[in-house]
Structure formats: C-alpha cells, structure tokens
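Two proteins follow. First one:
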Amino acid sequence: MNITKKPVLIGVSAIALLLAGGVAVTSFTTSPKPVTANAGDGHDHGEGEEHGEEGGAIHMDAATIARSKITLVEAGPAPVSRDIRVMGTVVADADRMVHVTLRVSGIVTEVHKRLGEQVQPGDVLLVLDSRDLADAKAEFLSALRQNALAATTLSREEGLWRKQVSAEQDYLTARAAAETAAITLAATRQRLTVLGLSPAEIAGLDKQPFSLGRLEVRSPIAGRVIGREAVRGELLAAEKEVFSVADLSSVWVELPVYAADLPAVKEGQPVSLTGQGGRNVEGRVIATGATLDPQTGAARVVAALDNKDGVWRPGDFGSGTIQAGGEVADIAVPSSALQMLNGETVVFVRNTEGFEPRVVEVGRRNSRVAEITFGLFPGEQVATGNTFLLKAEASRGEAAHSHAH
C-alpha cells in the first residue's frame, strides 16, 4: 500500500469529499463518542462486505465501526502541555493532621484507641493519672471557694458602709480582697485549660466525685489513628507525643523535581499519579519548593490528592506526571490516534469508504495530546480508540497488495 503525505492546502474536491461523508462531527475539545450505525459512509454494504482494503482505503461501514468501538474526533486546536515525569511518596495532609501531646506528666491508666482506628472529635484516646494535675485542680477548687467567700464579704461590707455602720476602710479592704480572689480564680482556671481540661470539665470539678488526678486526653479532630506512643502503666513526661491523628480523605504526595524542570512547575497544575496495583489518581500542585536539596539537586514539590475512598496511605509510592503549561496547537489529535505503519506515523482519516491511513508529522506531544504539523486539516475526523484494528487491516491489505504484484 502506497501511503502519501497530503498537501497543506485543501482543494475543492477534498472539501466536497468531507461534506459527502455524512458523518456527524465530534469536536476534539469534547469527549469522543462512538460512531453510530446511522452515521454511515454513504454506501450500502452487504453483511459480507463490512470491511476490506483496496487502493489504500480501508472499507468499513458504520455498523462495523460501532461494533469495533472505534471513535471519531475532530482535529482542531488544543493545548499541548509538557509532561514532567515524577516519582513521589504519599504523606498525610499536614493541614488535616494533629499530634496529641501531653501537657502534664502522669501514669497511663487507660488506652482507648488502637492504630488505624477511626476517631471523632472529643473521643477519649487515653486516661492519665497525674499528681501535677491533681495539685492544679486542688488549687482551682480552693480559689473557687476563696472567691465565693470574698464576694460574700464584699457584699456585706458594702451594705454596712452604705448604712454608715462600718468604716469605709473596711469596705475598701473587702473589695481589694474580692478582686484578688477573682484574679487567683481566673489564673487557676487558665492553668487547667492549658493542662488540657475542657470548660465543661472545669465547670464540673466541684460537682463530680472523681479523682483529681484523672485526665482524659481527647482527639481534637475526626480521622484515623496513624501513630500511638502510649502503653498502660507507663509513666509519661509532659510534652510527650502520645497519638497522631490524620484525616486521610485528602493526602499529599511529595514529588522531587530537578532544577532543570522546576521553572515549568506552577501551583494549580494537574498531576497524574499511578501507584501499586495500577491505582490512578488526579491531583493538583499546591506548593513548589523554594530551595534545592544539595545532595539530590531537586526541590520538594507537593501535590494534593483526593482520597475519599481511602486507597492511598501515607508511605505509598507512586509515579506519574506533572502537566506543565503549554501553548495551544493549531491542529491536535489524541495521542491514541497515532500509529506506526511502514516506519511512518499515520492517523486514520474517515472518508466515504471508511478510513484512509494518512502520513503525518508530529510536533509537540504528551501522553494525551499530539500536535500535527503536516498532513492533516482542521475539521477532519480521525479514528481514536482501538486504532490497532485499523492498523492490522491496513497491514493485511498491504501484504495482499505486495503478494499480488
């Protein structure tokens, strides 16, 4: 089969041929749709004449095209982005993770959550028995009572002073004592807050008969326990990290990008990642590294990935591409439309008989889109999806043609 390159200019006869095809046009900028049996080639083929090859054309009617799941797209303008190959490690989203740290020393008496367990805000992670906390609670209760007594004394002295029964100095002394007691109470309440007690727990201290040293350490967010450093009976010091909780509905992936590619990477660019088992996910760049690692010469680029199905876990590895920005090509087709035939790159163009293999020259390309610099006109329809069937048909016709000669 002799495959020739088409000239850049299109003649009147070619336009007439395109119009005569009678095939509904699917724009390349939209999702390609399978050709229906009614979007035919204008010829009534018998059931035994669905396809064949003669004179460079692949004879195939609309019904066969539909059964073969071959789709048509219209060649036209499309952005051709640059794909930057990357490999990365999945980590927890730092904006959706907390490290639960003790604010007071004590002995672990209860552990309520295990690694991997889901928690809700306010769930108790562990219970601590702390002498320091008991002292702080006792100081608060003492300040609470002193404040109540000082307030009562102030009220009595003010009444007596206004009735001129007692001296003004007694009233002023009582007022100063009441103000001091209120300040002390506020300070002891603030200390309990810093040590991890909630306002409700503080308010109920003088009403509920439980150990003053008991501290319930709670989760501040909903998520999954991804770290635990607490064992029952263990004596833990203040500032000890005991639990890590992360909301894994969204995760990050850290992608080292080398200095040569870094200028092309911008926040908001799409990222495609494939993990173990062929898992695929789409994300967006949210941060680009401001410094380079002196050992690797790469910067840390971070992308956010949707993980509502929980497939990705911190520590997973993945490889993929960052779709860096690119200019719009005047004529572009899906990369899946390209095939190699007789050592040349071809696309299969729809015509009245079926398809013709057309030699093209390819400019910029990535895994999704290819720019056509010669051999194709805007608006022409090309096959995409299962184009290897057309390649096999064209190769069979070529072999038969060579054998006949």
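Second one, unrelated to the first:
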Amino acid sequence: MRHINLLPWREERRRDQQKRFTRQTVLILGLCLMVVVVAMMQTQAGIGVQKERNDYLQSQIRELEGRIGEVKALRDQRKLMKERMAVVLKLQDNRTEAVRIFDALARAVPDGVILEKMELMDENLELSGTALNNAEVSSFMRRLDQSEVFHAARLDVIKVASGESRRSSFVLKVQTGKAETGS
C-alpha cells in the first residue's frame, strides 16, 4: 500500500481556515466599529438637537419671565391706584363731615355752656369748656347722645371753680359717626 502524506494538505487547510477566521474577525470588528461610530454620531446629533430645543425653551422662559415681571409691575401699579382711589373716595365721603359735626355741635350746645377747645382724632372728639353748673353739662351730654352725628358721650373731667363765677370746667369725649347697634 502506498502511503499518502496528508499532513501538508491539513496544514494548508488549517492556514486557510486561520486566514478566513482572521478576515472574518477583522470584518466583524470593522462592522462593530462602524456600528459604534454610527451610534455615536446619532447620539451626538440627538444631543445637538436637544441642546437646540433647550436653548429655545430657555429663551422662551426668559421672555415669559420678562412678561411676568411686567404683569407684577402692572399689578403693583393697580394696587397703588386702588389705594389712591380709596383715599380719594374716603376724602370725598368725609368732605361734608366737618360741616355736619359743627352743625350738630351748634344745635347740641345749651345756652349755659361755652366750648373753649375741640380736638378731633379719628372718630373721637374731645371737647373742653365751661358751664354755669353741672346740670348744663348733663344736658349737653344728653343732647350729644340724641344727635345723629354723636354717640357714646362720656365725661372725663369736671371741676368746679372757686370764686364768684362758680363755673364748672369740663372735658368731654364723644364719638362721631353713626352709632353701631349690636343686635
């Protein structure tokens, strides 16, 4: 029988398989590298688009914050205007109050009472004066309580002067405005 040497053929086949394996490995690595590069490019493109969106949104936010600032400024102006209007309306309403107070006071003062000083603080009126006697002061207080303008009259001080005149000096406090009824 003849001997056929198959070793060189096997070796050649092994080298071919090794070359094919190396080529396939290089090809697969090249494809993987291309896939990674394409994926990175896609990611970078997506990041760029997202940055553009973010920049647009930030510019819109700044614009809206500016508008919000304008709205706040307008609200503050509106509040100031309302406060001014309220002051003007209050002054308008209180314009005739002094006339009403003097008119009601002139009607309430009896003949024996002389007013020397009047001081109005908010809705409280302090009256100082002299009277012929304590009965005149009592009459004055009753008239003040019956008035539509005054209520809650109270006597703070009454002094009887010594000497010939014997006049009583008094300090009286009364509230102006409509009386509050608690029911």
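SUMMARY FIELD: The beta strands are 113-121, 124-131, 150-160, 168-176. The longest helix spans residues 7-94.
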